[in-house]
């Protein structure tokens, strides 16, 4: 079975060996305050900096999920309220979670701008140019304003200019090609300073408490040790992000032109018309409910799992993950299937 589901998504096949290694060598039974375990956390953080080209002065912590990061931003980094310009289901959910913790007030009092860089639900993305514009506009507000970015379905798939935001996070079941249950949280010196000014320390996952623990390569609670080990092993294997970025963008350009040119007589069209808004890592394809249902079923019979639509686009789209763990051969198989389906 080949899967193009945009999360949980295809894991690197090597993960099977890494997991059995972790059990065989007793890594999953290590005490999380032991030197051996701390060494794994330290190496994982080092590899994240190296392979994803994260600035040396940006901090990294590992938590459980992106949803947890939404709450950490609201509880530990938001003074009054956060601002959530969104275009899809994940951005909307983030706003809903944040408002339960810090209810919305007047827009001009917002002190954190929350953006979803890659909206997995409809295959749109915020480019680095747009993010730079947000950075200019938002930091000219009174006082210091933070920008927090949900990059769940793009981190480790495309390259970012990390300095354009203060908080970036992603769970690992998308572009990292790993099983769910772990998330990477990256935060700038300004974000840490903000957390210290707020001084919020009421939760097991308060950012200050997490930061204090990670400074010693420890975690507040017994962490997902297997997940951390798998992340470390996958990071050892992947290419530097500049190379991954080039491959991802080459493949997304090819996929978009495939739909525009070779599939132009099919019952399907790209959901997003404006090429500048299209995601490089999640391609959303629109059609009638009947056509979407039929193609998903036929794909399944051909051994291919297409991603279901999500939120408002649940029954009228399917989605294709263009994540690094997916091979060129698998994409070719998908194209051949879609071509044969349209005839
Ligand atoms: C998948 C996804 C999430 C949710 O991640 P969890 O690990 O389930 O918390 C959040 N935001 C975006 C953009 C996603 O694609």
Task: Give the name of the CATH architecture of the largest domain.
Answer: 3-Layer(aba) Sandwich
Instruction: Give the N-terminus to C-terminus distance in angstroms.
Output: 23 Å
Low-confidence stretches: none
CATH superfamily of the largest domain: Type I PLP-dependent aspartate aminotransferase-like (Major domain)
Describe the SSE topology:
Layout: E1 2-3, H1 15-24, H2 35-52, E2 59-63, H3 66-76, E3 82-83, H4 89-101, E4 112-116, E5 118-119, E6 124-125, H5 128-139, E7 146-150, E8 167-171, E9 183-187, H6 189-198, H7 207-214, H8 225-237, H9 241-262, E10 269-270, E11 282-286, H10 289-301, E12 304-305, E13 307-308, E14 317-321, H11 328-342
Parallel strand pairs: 1-12, 3-4, 4-7, 7-8
Antiparallel strand pairs: 2-9, 5-6, 8-9, 10-11, 11-14, 13-14
The protein binds pyridoxal-5'-phosphate.
């Amino acid at each position: 079975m080949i899967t193009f589901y945009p999360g949980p998504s295809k894991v690197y096949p090597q993960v099977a060996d890494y997991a059995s290694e972790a059990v065989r060598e007793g890594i999953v039974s290590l005490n999380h305050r032991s030197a051996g375990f701390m060494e794994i956390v330290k190496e994982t953080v080092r590899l994240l900096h190296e392979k994803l080209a994260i600035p040396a002065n940006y901090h990294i912590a590992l938590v459980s999920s992106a949803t947890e990061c939404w709450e950490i931003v609201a509880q530990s980094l938001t003074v009054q309220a956060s601002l959530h310009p969104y275009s899809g289901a994940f951005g909307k959910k983030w706003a809903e979670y944040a408002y339960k913790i810090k209810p919305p007030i007047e827009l001009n009092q917002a002190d954190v701008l929350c953006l979803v860089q890659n909206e997995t639900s409809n295959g749109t993305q915020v480019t680095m140019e747009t993010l730079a514009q947000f950075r200019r506009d938002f930091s000219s507000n009174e006082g210091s304003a933070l920008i927090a970015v949900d990059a769940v379905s793009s981190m480790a798939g495309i390259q970012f200019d990390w300095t354009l935001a203060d908080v970036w996070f992603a769970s690992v079941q998308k572009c990292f090609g790993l099983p769910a249950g772990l998330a990477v949280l990256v935060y700038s010196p300004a974000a840490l300073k903000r957390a210290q000014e707020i001084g919020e320390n009421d939760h097991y996952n308060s950012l200050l408490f997490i930061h204090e623990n990670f400074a010693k390569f420890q975690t507040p609670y017994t962490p997902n040790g297997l997940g951390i080990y798998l992340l470390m092993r996958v990071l050892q294997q992947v290419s530097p992000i500049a190379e991954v970025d080039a491959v991802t963008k080459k493949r997304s350009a090819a996929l978009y032109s495939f739909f525009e040119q070779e599939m132009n007589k099919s019952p399907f069209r790209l959901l997003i018309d404006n090429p500048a808004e299209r995601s490089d890592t999640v391609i959303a394809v629109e059609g009638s409910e009947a056509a979407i249902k039929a193609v998903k079923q036929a794909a399944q019979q051909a051994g291919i799992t297409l991603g279901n639509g999500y939120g408002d686009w649940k029954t009228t789209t399917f989605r294709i993950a263009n994540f690094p763990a997916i091979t060129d051969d698998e994409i070719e198989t998908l194209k051949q299937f879609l071509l044969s389906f349209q005839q």
